[in-house]
Amino acid sequence: MQHIVIIGGGFAGINLAKSLANNKDFSVTLVDRNNYNFFPPLLYQVATSYLETSSICYPFRRFLRGKKNVTFRMGEFKQLKPTENKVVLSNGELSYDHVVFAVGAETNFFGMENVRQNALPMKTVNDALELRNYFLQRMEQATRTTDPVERDKLLTIVIAGGGPTGVEVSGVLAEMKKKVIPKDYPELSGKGFESHIYLVDGGPKLLAPMSEKSQVDTLNALTKMGVEVKLNSQVKDYKDDIVTFANGDTVATKTLVWAAGVTGSVFEGIPQESYGRGRRLIVDEHNLVSGFSNVYAIGDTCLQSTDKAFPNGHPQVAQVAIQQGKLLAKNFAASVTGKPQKAFRYNDKGTMAIIGWNKAVADIPKPKLHFKGFIAWLMWLFIHLISLINYRNKIRTLYNWTSAYFTRDQTLRMIVRPDGEPPVKG
Amino acid sequence: MQHIVIIGGGFAGINLAKSLANNKDFSVTLVDRNNYNFFPPLLYQVATSYLETSSICYPFRRFLRGKKNVTFRMGEFKQLKPTENKVVLSNGELSYDHVVFAVGAETNFFGMENVRQNALPMKTVNDALELRNYFLQRMEQATRTTDPVERDKLLTIVIAGGGPTGVEVSGVLAEMKKKVIPKDYPELSGKGFESHIYLVDGGPKLLAPMSEKSQVDTLNALTKMGVEVKLNSQVKDYKDDIVTFANGDTVATKTLVWAAGVTGSVFEGIPQESYGRGRRLIVDEHNLVSGFSNVYAIGDTCLQSTDKAFPNGHPQVAQVAIQQGKLLAKNFAASVTGKPQKAFRYNDKGTMAIIGWNKAVADIPKPKLHFKGFIAWLMWLFIHLISLINYRNKIRTLYNWTSAYFTRDQTLRMIVRPDGEPPVKG
To answer: How many domains is chain B built from?
Structure first.
């Protein structure tokens, strides 16, 4: 029996583990620093108080019940010792026959230390809760301050990054500004203030990988909703409540949400030459990391240029991770039975982004179709709902969405933090 | 128009604010250090992962919508300046015509510094989340450790305090030990270990204020479920993973849950002579604090000996707080219209505690009745459900309870903490 260690239980890792479950040729250890899997496409709804954490999270141990050859290990990757076939975790070591890196990507601050310290990223559940607490605290401060300049800064939000996360966050915030804020913060009415929601991107387009129709629809919809979109505007610095752009423009704000880019992680024990563009691990068509015979990488953390349609590597999206996880499991099984291994080919099922209530965009590659508005929104809801990891999450989320749809509101705006008094960042 | 400042939005404060809403003679500011009201009787279900936070919490601002004369202010009480009719908060000052203290009670460690540092209290939502994270982390550690002595300590839990909280927590944990742990932590099976759940109390009885029948039923039920009840066992110290009792007995454990007592808070600006037993503020029959003409206290934080049936003060329970909050609102209204004020009389509607699935005890004073088992359990569920603050909370909780009832399980065992890597206490 061969022992496979999977580092990371996101889309890639969990699909690999699931597909290897109850395969008698393998024992599997799934390692994650959290004890739960979560659904990143809905993080922005946790951050904006539209969903509770439990709607998008599921404990690994519960998920692995009945999968007798798969063990969960909570711990953080520290080092690979390839000559000993061992991984060192924050709390011990594991021996492996095969090790698979499936840790996803991390937020890229592009070396801007002030941005790293003062902006709010949106990659993890902790980030999303931090952001929720932060938004709500800023609103409370705005009700208390007597300084109008300070109030404007508290009520202005800059979201950097025109990808799906940036579009989704700015859309929700624009709707909350209209529907929720006047009702919940009556103290603010009558006090003159300037409250802006800026969505900024260094490039010339929103949702760059989508069709031009989707890009234009999104820009128009967001603008109509009151989001001020600034394209070709690269953030250069953020300190003393001032966001500075490459062209010298500035915006005064207490809140910079950072969804402007991701990068791969550095893994101690993997040599420099195994990393490619975006610090992703270079892998062959079977997801074997360059320079190794039993170290693999799948999902956002790898760079595979063997897929003819994607010579510069795949987009870092959920579908690639899921498909790579499933195929790697098949290839492991094939290696035991002596069957030939299959090369990975990405089957692109389409891309979508939600902008607001009844508003979304969707591109389907085969046949080439573009949807927008209510239909795209329904598609988005349906696909995200069925993608949730288990039945409980689906029910919970459906209930939350249904009631939010009818009330255009939610009741989750609690500043909750398990270790006492919330600190204030920035 | 008179300005009433209410410090604390628990059962007492929120009922006072609600009863004063839309009364044109008063403007009201409700101050709380959190931005949400919560339902303490169900905290233990949050701590044991049976309910999510959002089931028992509700944002004040949402609650106060449409109550035009009531404003919410997030902040912590720092000081009373009675000569200036001002309260100083952590983030500003408020002037008042009347100020009402409704802050509840806080955990009493009886001066034992080691217990304060190493034990886990159960009074706030943050406490409950801390406890949940802590339980789950201890289980993860138990699956990893190779030291059998360490494993026993990780899997043994001591709950101090035989009141409703202690009974409820130990009951849930005993059920989880039987139904959930073997399925979620298969690594532990086969490894010999001693796992104990101790419920300890310094007095001779569990649920001391309840009827003897209820006390005996509870003791029997818990014992049958595997809880080891140690009465007349006062905790004297807790350090280096050892709980030491007054009689010299010790238990080795990494987890001491502290539900053994409460105390009133100290309010800067209120003189020593206004405090009574348990550091509660001495009030007259109209809840006016002794020595003041416009400072009031209601709920757990006050001590009222003018109610004939309760010459030593009322029990510190929700019903007293609710009734005092409502009556004080009526008395404020009466003071304006010149009607006579009413003295507070507590109407005891009964006491109940839940022990486990299908098991609870309930005492009703008029007519004197005792219920146990399934009927008491249904009563408990029903009363707690209708007591939740709003419709959303009720639906959410009903759904959680129903699914938990049928599966005897929940899917909320996530270690979530908004500021990164969970620290380990103790």
So the answer is: 2
